[in-house]
Amino acid sequence: MSEHVHTSVSNGTGFIVLDRPKALNSLSLDMVRGITQALLAWREDEAVAAVVIRSSSEKAFCAGGDIRFFHDAGKATPQGGSALVEDFFTEEYSLNHLVHFYPKPYIALMDGVVMGGGMGIAQAGPDARVRVVTEKTKMAMPEVNIGLFPDVGGSYFLSRAPGALGYYLGITGVTIDAADALYAGLADHYAPTSDRAALEELLNSTPGLDLPVAIQAYSSMHKAGGGALEADRAAIERHFSAGSVPAIVASLQADSGPFAQKTLEMMASRSPLMMCVTYELIRRGAELDVAGCLRMERAVVRRNFENGEVIEGVRALVIDKDNQPEWRPAALEQVTDHMVRRFFEPVWPDYAHPLRHL
């Protein structure tokens, strides 16, 4: 078990606590394995009727994968082909699949930062999920900002967000709050931290089997209010339904309104290539089931490390902190269909795919 993942069972509930606060609970391979081991052990355990996954800190539920590790391991080997990187993504995506199809109520307390890999361990399937957000929730799939793409099942849950919201969230990597998360269907309940003592009492005193109903009753007394996504919905639909990233940008450029101008400024710092890959990923994901989406993402992430875009993005954002990534290509008009299709070419024959058993 990872030193950063603590587990316990009480009153029919299995508790998983992420405890790597200095790194905002960024997932290491050991943490992925610790969570997986707990979930597998409890899946058939009659003493565990529900699972709660949370953080030891209100600052972050989970900020994603350990991108410093991606950079160091990927840069150390030709074409980013580190065995540890390969293991990480294979096991992380397997965990995402396990979470999605977990047979017991799976309650994620998404307090603070919830990004990337944190979304992957929170977005359970409809039969299990109980996703709770607070006024401190800062949610995003911000991978295009580091030259990656919204993985961990993002091609599945973003493609199923209402209207064009999934394209907007994935292509821009914008950060949203609790109200937005609820509006986009990426959360279920709102629980303000001002009433945290009552929620803690509920979690500790309610038998695991009764937790989903109890949390629903509790959250019905609290409202998150309106959010930016609802206010900007008409503009999002108009622009992000344009049919491609270049068409989206052209649509935004023709709009002098504040939403369009702010969105253009945000997209200008993202990887042009990975914004286009993200569009295609979400488009394809709409036609695939969960396992198909994860298998597609597993191949795309291998292509990404071969390309090196993520290594450059992490260098600029986290390592050197110059915030001047040298994207390849540097401009959106230089991205070709061939470049994008290359990311979706099979890496392995079907019988050898690392996620073939999902």
Quick rundown:
The protein has helices spanning 29-43, 67-75, 83-100, 117-120, 154-157, 165-172, 178-183, 196-205, 211-219, 228-231, 233-240, 245-253, 258-267, 272-285, 290-307, 309-319, 337-342, and strands at 5-10, 13-18, 50-55, 60-62, 106-110, 113-115, 129-133, 138-140, 189-190. With 358 residues, the chain is α/β, with parallel strands linked by helices. The chain has a 6-stranded mixed β-sheet with strand order 1-2-3-5-7-9, sandwiched between helices. A 3-stranded parallel β-sheet has the order 4-6-8.
Architecture overview:
The chain is α/β, with parallel strands linked by helices and 358 residues long. It has one domain (5-352): Alpha-Beta Complex (2-enoyl-CoA Hydratase, Chain A, domain 1), CATH 3.90.226.10. It is 46% helix and 11% strand. It has 17 helices and nine strands. The strands form two sheets. A six-stranded mixed beta sheet has the order 1-2-3-5-7-9, with helices on both faces. Helix 3 (83-100) packs antiparallel against helix 15 (290-307). The model has no long low-confidence stretch (mean pLDDT 95). GO terms for molecular function: 3-hydroxyisobutyryl-CoA hydrolase activity; isomerase activity. InterPro entries: ClpP/crotonase-like_dom_sf (IPR029045), ECH_dom (IPR045004), HIBYL-CoA-H (IPR032259). It holds the Pfam family ECH_2. This is Enoyl-CoA hydratase/isomerase family protein.
